[in-house]
Write a structure and sequence with these properties.
- The protein is α/β, with parallel strands linked by helices and 412 residues long.
- The chain folds into 2 domains: 1-41, no CATH class; 49-411, Glycoside hydrolase, family 3, N-terminal domain (TIM Barrel, Alpha-Beta Barrel).
- 45% of the residues lie in helices and 8% in strands.
- The chain contains 16 helices and 8 strands.
- The chain has an 8-stranded parallel sheet.
- Helix 2 (49-56) crosses helix 15, helix 3 (59-65) crosses helix 15 and helix 7 packs parallel to helix 8 (203-219).
- The longest helix is centred in the middle third of the chain and has 18 residues, at 156-173.
- The relative contact order is 0.13.
- The model is unreliable at 1-38 (pLDDT under 50).
């Protein structure tokens, strides 16, 4: 080993083995042997409150968190109370016929929170409050203009102001999740379902204003759910009635439809709703809402989305006219989705839960797969500090003034 070492360095080279042994025994810092003050103590792993909450839940409680359910009528029913107390439903969605007046709506929201008091996980209370023709809040409240009107203004600050005002309105009532903004590019003027719900036909305008609005909602503690991934703007069939089919490949989607969603994800989107549209060039068998190539490969892997993925309403014609609802629910979870939205019918809501439960019992779905989704759900609820504390009387005049100012901001 010392054959080619210069004569002047031989003493140093000969001493190297002893020096290495000394350093190994004393520690490289030279501050003593293992167990002395110079040795760094192992750090305890940081606690994860979300993981702790997850492990405290039974399997049935976890499965309940996967469901956002609709409610019949304008007051809490025995069926809905059972769905919350016995089936641990994770959230409720409200439609126009559920909300008759500000006082009635507040009473309903508080009653549902009270029904959930036995759960360790607070409810999502949600609706579609987009502005324009899609508005669920009672008539006494000022309505926001359509997304098209906002897109024509194309003022990022004004769009943020609209989101902030909407978030303030919903938060005042105790609502915490809004299925908006719409990020579909309105590329087909004959589209029967999107139209002025879109910010426009330019993907950059849609992405810019949609992302600003979602950030405004977030500023008020309301979770925005961007929709309808991967893009519903070029369809000619209303998915409420039938299943739209789009012959777009990935090149086309990347060049137009996906751009607003990519921008929103970069801008902090926490939740994405996936549409009931069939894209045969990506998946010839399953609509996007329960397609692994769309949810896992495209949304999660390519766009890097790690948040909560929700289906569009599984009771829509696009699903129930072609698929059994329970099977669609299971397929959505298999594909990488997290939340099953079942907006109408107690029997259908129970059917979705039962199908998922049977899939776990049979081994088709593993509890580990369920845990992945429930962890994301609990993490999002914790991020926004959701609670089931009731809200007091809402100052309608103050809420309306903020909404009016947001509308005025679009004109200035």
């Amino acid at each position: 080993m010392l054959r080619n070492t210069p004569q002047s360095l031989l003493p140093i080279a000969s001493a190297l083995p002893a020096l290495v042994t000394f350093l190994l025994l004393t520690g490289c810092s030279g501050q003593g042997s293992p167990g002395t003050e110079g040795t760094a103590k192992p750090q305890a792993p940081p606690s994860d409150p979300v993981r702790e909450r997850l492990t405290s839940l039974t399997l049935d409680q976890k499965l309940g968190q996967l469901l956002i359910a609709g409610i019949d009528g304008d007051r809490i029913t025995g069926d809905m109370e059972s769905l919350i107390k016995n089936d641990d439903a994770g959230g409720i969605i409200f439609y126009k016929d559920n909300l008759k007046s500000p006082a009635q709506a507040l009473q309903l929201f508080n009653a549902l929170k009270e029904a959930n008091k036995g759960s360790s996980v607070p409810l999502w209370l949600s609706l579609d409050e987009e502005g324009g023709r899609v508005s669920r809040m009672p008539g006494e409240l000022v309505k926001m203009p359509s997304a098209r009107t906002i897109g024509l203004t194309d003022n990022r600050d004004a769009s943020y102001g609209v989101g902030r005002a909407l978030g303030g309105e919903l938060s005042a009532f105790g609502l915490n999740l809004n299925f908006a903004p719409v990020l579909d590019v309105n590329s087909n003027p004959n589209n029967p379902v999107i139209g002025d719900r879109s910010f426009g036909a330019d993907a950059a305008v849609v992405g810019r204003n949609g992302t600003a609005e979602l950030q405004g909602l977030q500023s008020q503690g309301v979770i925005p759910v961007v929709k309808h991934f991967p893009g519903h703007g070029d369809t000619s069939v209303d998915s409420h009635i039938g299943l739209p089919v789009l012959q777009h490949d990935l090149t086309r989607l990347r060049s137009l439809e996906l751009k607003p969603f990519a921008e929103a994800i970069r801008g902090g989107a926490d939740a994405v709703m996936v549409a009931h549209i069939l894209l045969p060039k990506l998946d010839p068998e399953n609509p996007a809402s329960f397609s692994k190539p769309v949810i896992t490969d495209l949304l999660r892997k390519e766009l890097g989305f790690g948040g909560v993925v929700m289906t569009d309403d599984l009771t829509m014609g696009a699903v129930v006219k072609k698929y059994e609802l329970g099977e669609a629910a299971v397929r959505s979870l298999e594909a990488g989705g997290d939340v099953l939205l079942v907006g109408h019918g107690y029997d259908l809501e129970r059917q979705a839960l039962q199908a998922v439960k049977e899939a776990v019992r049979s081994g088709r779905l593993t509890e580990r797969r369920i845990d992945e989704s429930v962890y994301r759900i609990l993490q999002l609820k914790a991020k926004y500090k959701l609670t089931d504390e009731p809200k007091g009387q809402v100052e309608i005049a103050r809420v309306n003034e903020a909404l009016k100012q947001a509308v005025q901001g679009l004109k200035s």
